[in-house]
Q: What sequence folds into this?
């Protein structure tokens, strides 16, 4: 919110929704704007405009990796290692 204000935009939060798809549905219905991951671009692409943000436009946002501690999968272990290296 502070990054938006610094850019000269004072957002008025009318709804906070628990699911990204709900936010996109509200945007498609003309009920505002939302920040979503790029992976959601295919949804409502006939009625919603997606714009990539310029790197540095917003401060880094927290991202959490969740996994089962007892998962024996090599794929999971490798993904965790890649995520740890990327977060450094």
A:
């Amino acid at each position: 919110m502070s990054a938006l204000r610094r850019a000269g935009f004072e957002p008025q939060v009318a709804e906070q929704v628990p699911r990204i798809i709900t936010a996109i549905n509200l945007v498609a219905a003309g009920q505002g704007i939302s920040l979503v991951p790029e992976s959601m671009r295919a949804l409502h692409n006939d009625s919603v405009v997606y714009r990539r943000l310029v790197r540095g436009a917003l401060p880094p946002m927290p991202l959490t990796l969740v996994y089962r501690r007892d998962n024996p999968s090599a794929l999971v272990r490798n993904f965790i290692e890649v995520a740890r290296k990327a977060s450094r």
